[in-house]
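Researcher: I'm preparing a figure for a lab meeting and need a structural model of a single chain. I don't have an experimental structure, so a prediction will have to do for now. The sequence is pasted below. Please return the structure as C-alpha cells so I can convert it later.
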Amino acid sequence: MNVLFLQVFEGPREVFSGEFQGELEIGRQQIDEPVPFQMVNGGTVPRLIVAPMDERTIARRQLRVTPYDENTVELMNLSTVATVLLTGGESLAPGGKGVLSLPLKVGIGHNLDLRIERPQAPEQLNSLAQVTVRPGLSMFDSDHAPFAETFDGVDAKELNLIRSLQLTMDVFQMATSSPDFYERACRAAIELVGLDSGRVLMRQGTAWQVVEHFAPDESKMSPVSRYVLNQVSRHTKTFWKSGDSLQDPSKSLGEVHSVVAAPILDRGGAVSGILYGERALSFSSETGQLNDITELDALLLELVACAVASGLARLQGEDAARRLRLQFEQFFTPELAQHLETHPDMLAGRDAEVSVMFCDIRGFSRVAEKIGAERTFDWINDVMGTLSDCVTNHQGVLVDYIGDELMAMWGAPVQQTDHARRACLAAIDMIDLLPRLNERWEAVLGQRFDLGIGISSGPVRAGNMGSNRKFKYGPLGNTVNLASRVQGATKYFKSRLIVTGATAEALDEDVLMRRVADVRVVNIETPVALYELPCGGVQNAAALCSAYEEALACFEQRDFRKASQLLTTLMATYPDDGASVILLSRAVSALVDGPSEGHPVWKMSGK
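Model: Understood. Here is the structure written out cell by cell.
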C-alpha cells in the first residue's frame, strides 16, 4: 500500500494534513506556484508547498518522500545547503537519503515539523441522518430531512428537548454570520414556543424600539404591552401574561392574546433588549383546555433570549478585538496582532535583545521639491508600502515612519533568537526590490533613487511608547541610537546596507560580508565595528570583500604604504566602491601626516 498520511505543523499549530500516494516532493514556493500549504500536481512528482518564495531557510526542492514498504519510507534531502532534522536528534545532511521507520517526524526550516505515517484503518461508525448545518445557514433554510424523521426511536419529550437545543444553537450561530440575526431569533421563538409572533426590542435611551419582528400572519400581532416591557426591564426577569381567568370554552376570545417577554442582557447584566412574543388565545376542541402560555414556554423563550444575548456579546467582543487588531496591524504582522489580542501584557515595557533597522530614502528632499507634494505623496506611499511588506514578510515590527525613513525591529514583543538574520534578510529584500521601484517611478521622478539601511543588535527597553490616545510600540536604548547612526554611515561609505559588529556576529558563517572600519559615531563614545553586506548585484563580491579586508588589516597595522597599494589596485577593478575610497583617503593622509588620534578608529564628523 503506497498511501501515506502527512501532517505539517508550524510550531504547535497544524497548517496542513492530507493523504498522498507514491512519491511527494516538499519545498518552498516557486514562480507561478500557489501560496503555502497547497498540493501541486503539475510535474512528474506532486509537490507540497510549505513556505513562501522569500523564506530562505527552506529550499525550493527540500525533501522527497517515497514509500518503501509497509513500515518504512525513503527520505531524500534534495537541498544542497539545508539540513533536515529527524527524530532523536539525528539529521539528514544536504543530498543525503535514508530509509526510516513509520511513524516519522521531520523538522525543516526554523519552525516546521512534518509527521508521516500510514493512514488509520477504517472503523465502523454510526452517524446522524442529517448533515450538520454549516455556520451562516439556518435550520429554517436547510434542505435537510424533516426534523422528526431524523430521530427514529426517540420519544416526544426527548425530541422536543433536542429541537429546543438545536433552535437555540441556530440563533447563537447566526450572530456571527447573518444580517437577519434578529429575525432568526423571532422565528426561533415562534418555532420553539409555539407563538404567533415574535419581536426584538432594543433600548434606545429611555425608550424601546422594535428592531425586528416576524409573524406568519401579521394580522394576529397586537400593540406591545409597555407594562410588560417595564416589568422585564425593572426586575431583569422573564414575565408572561396568561389567560387563566378565561374558563368558559363557549366564550368568544376575539382579540385576546397572551404575552411573554424575556430580557436580553449585556455583559454587565443590564437589560439592553427584550425578546417579546404573543399568542392568540383559543380553546382546544379536543381537550377543552386553553392554549395558554405556560412556565415551560417562558423558560424556552428565555433560553432563546440568552442565545441572542450571547451572540450579541460575542459580536461586540469581536468588534472590539477587530478594532484592536486593526490598530496592532499598523505595526505587527496579522498573526502577531491576533496573538497580542489575547496576550496584551506582552506590550508592557520589558528588556529585550533585538535588532533595530533604519531605512532611509536617498535624495528624498531634492526629488520632493522637484515633483511637488501630490506626486511625492503617491511615491512615498508606494515605496513605504513595499519596504513595509519586506519587514512583515520576515515577522518584523513596523515601529515608525519618520519622514522619508522607516524604522523597524525584530526580537520583541515576541522573542526571536534569529532576530539579526531576519532583519538582514528583510534589508536584502528591500535592496533587491529597488530596481523594480525605480522602474515604476523613474519617469515621474526624472531620476533613480537609492536606499541606505543601518542595522544594530543589542539590548533595549521595548514597549508602548505612545499614550492612551495613540499607540506606538517600539524600543528605547543605545542600540536604537546606534542603528540610526549606522544608517547615516552608509552615506559616507556609499553603501546600501551596513550593520554593527553585534549584528554581524549573530549571522550565519555563510553570509557574505566585510568589516569596513571601526568607527566612533556622533554622541556615542564607544567605538563600534561596522560591516557591509554586499547585495544588490555586486559583481565578484567575495573577491571584493577579501581584497578590502586585506588592505584594512595593513592599514590597522600601520602599513599605510601597502594598504594604499592594495587599495589602488582594488579600485582599478571596483572604481565605485565607497569603502575603498574612504580607506584609501585615510591611508594616504596617514602617509603624509601620520596616523590620526585614536588610530585605527575613525571618528565620524556627522550623522
